[in-house]
Design brief:
364 residues; mainly alpha; 2 domains; 0% strand; globular
Length: 364
């Protein structure tokens, strides 16, 4: 009971916003009389498509890593040092049962959905996806046990993931344009995960409306909503540069190269979405989706080189850019939109990059 209050109860209370968002996308946007058919169609989608199944397993893996990180962080907290005396005295099967139940209570939302998926898979005789989902979740619930046991026996050590990151940092020299990606993966992983989860659901819903002949307009509408969700990450990019890379303009790097490096950063950030579109729509129009998405993100980033553009004004511009992209897409002016947004982004970048000065409250 005490462990449940320390781990399980606090986990769900601290992640209330995350679970409310998940609940909204799974239940809030669908009328009550269509909930069963909606989830049945969603489960059938990843049971009958290898690409969607892989994406689903990846999302579940990310959630499992989130649970593991929470337990490790809780064990490392100074106010929870008593846990080492409580868990350290456990031995044999009782220890493994306790650790397993601890992780099981955190990973339970995925297990509930997985059980429903397995039952449907058996009903439609999709035995291979059922076995894959079963084995995957067994691994996901057993895998953390060893890391938790190691942390309890060696309180002063860092988790395996942190050790791996430190090992990678010693052997791989990150270019400056990758610093923000590294920050997202380490210091702001919750915002990144929420954005990717919401964006993937939007794209999957958009792709579910297309038939054998994909309508580019439908896909672009889903992509625009996905880019809207990424607007927060773009705004935080300026804040990160202001705080940690304010001396970057002093480096002898050509302006065109700086622009290309920024675009490469956003290409890597959007890579999961573009891989999803490749699986769902094929390679024929992938170049359009990539250039369309990057042109809008580059325009949003270039607008932030106007220092008087605070968060409220920025999101007004985000809304205007998304609406402009929506109208141009519905009018079949896809490539005109790409050229327009990209040229506007580069012109603003060209004239504003070296003139930009970070607000004092950002650099202090």
């Amino acid at each position: 009971m005490a462990l449940s209050k320390v781990f399980t109860a606090r986990y769900y209370s601290r992640n209330t916003g995350f679970f409310l968002l998940v609940f909204y996308f799974f239940f809030g946007i669908v009328p009550g009389n269509q909930l069963l058919s909606y989830h049945y169609a969603l489960i059938m989608g990843f049971l009958t498509s290898t690409g969607m199944l892989l994406i689903t397993l990846l999302i579940w893996l990310l959630y499992n890593l989130k649970c593991m990180a929470y337990v490790q962080k809780t064990l490392s907290a100074r106010e929870n040092t008593f846990l080492y005396a409580t868990l350290g005295i456990l031995e044999g099967p009782r220890k493994w049962r306790t650790l397993y139940w601890l992780h099981f209570t955190l990973y339970a939302p995925v297990l509930v959905y997985s059980i429903a998926a397995i039952l449907i898979a058996v009903k439609i005789h999709a035995y291979l996806p059922a076995i894959i989902i079963l084995v995957f979740n067994i691994i996901m619930t057993i895998m953390p046990m060893r890391s938790y046991d190691h942390k309890i026996k060696h309180p002063g050590t860092t988790p395996f993931f942190s050790d791996w990151v430190q090992w990678l940092n010693r052997r791989f020299r990150k270019p400056l344009w990758m610093f923000y990606i590294y920050e997202l993966l380490n210091g702001n992983v919750k915002a990144l995960a929420l954005t990717k989860f919401a964006g993937a659901l939007v794209l999957l819903m958009a792709c579910s409306f297309i038939g054998d002949q994909p309508d580019k307009r439908v896909v672009l509408v889903g992509l625009l909503l996905n880019l809207l969700a990424h607007g927060v990450l773009i705004f935080n990019h300026r804040r990160f540069d202001d705080l940690y890379l304010s001396m970057l303009p002093q480096l002898p790097v050509p302006l065109w190269k700086r622009y290309m490096q920024t675009g490469t950063t956003y290409l890597l950030i959007m890579l999961p979405e573009f891989i999803l579109l490749l699986f769902k729509t094929g390679p024929a129009d992938l170049l359009l989706y990539i250039t369309f998405g990057l042109s809008i993100l580059m325009l949003l980033r270039s607008l932030l080189y106007f220092p008087q553009l605070d968060q409220d004004k920025y999101f007004r511009w985000v809304f205007l850019v998304i609406v402009a992209g929506l109208f141009l897409s519905l009018a079949y002016y896809y490539w005109y939109a790409v050229v327009l947004f990209q040229l506007t982004a580069f012109v603003i970048f060209y004239f504003r990059y070296y003139r930009y000065e970070a607000p004092l409250q950002e650099v202090q």
